[in-house]
Every structure is written in C-alpha cells, then in structure tokens.
Design brief:
Layout lengths: L6 E7 L5 E6 L11 E6 L4 E4 L15 E4 L4 E7 L5
Antiparallel strand pairs: 1-4, 1-6, 2-3, 2-5
C-alpha cells in the first residue's frame, strides 16, 4: 500500500513476552531523522502510532518501513480520510 501520510499504525502484542517495534524514518527537509526504535509492548498491549507526515517517513519506493522483534505481533494500518 502506498504511504500517503494519513496512516495510523496499530500494533498488538500477541506474544508471551515483551516485544519491540521499530519504524524507520528518512531525512526530512531540515536534514533530520526520527526513527522510532525499540518501542516496547508488554504482553497483550496495544499501541497506535501516527499519523506520520510524508516528509521524514516516505521511503524512496513510496512506502514506510518498520519491523517487530517477533513474528507474532498483530499490525493493522488505518488510513484517515482526505481532509483530516
């Protein structure tokens, strides 16, 4: 799915231990980065992150990248409607 800057990313820890998620930024117009690294989620925790502006998060291929420390974490992307 192309990254538009209107996305909210939901994470749910379905693991039996603490997990982390990381979101990778890009250099923005002020030459800064702002990766979210090792955001910790306890057992059964939920978190919503975003929305993220295109500047600073939009990768060269038009997507946004992230990773989780385990495979059994649930991820959902909510796209806000235009005008929000």
């Amino acid at each position: 799915m192309p990254f538009t800057g209107k996305e909210i990313i939901l994470f749910r820890n379905d693991n039996v231990g603490v997990v982390t998620v990381t979101l990778n930024s890009t250099v923005d117009d002020k030459n800064r980065t702002g990766d979210i690294t090792a955001y910790s989620l306890g057992i059964g925790d939920y978190v919503a992150l975003g929305p993220f502006p295109k500047d600073g998060w939009h990768q060269a291929d038009g997507k946004m990248y992230g990773a989780a420390s385990v495979a059994d974490i649930s991820i959902a992307v909510l796209k806000l409607p235009a005008g929000m």
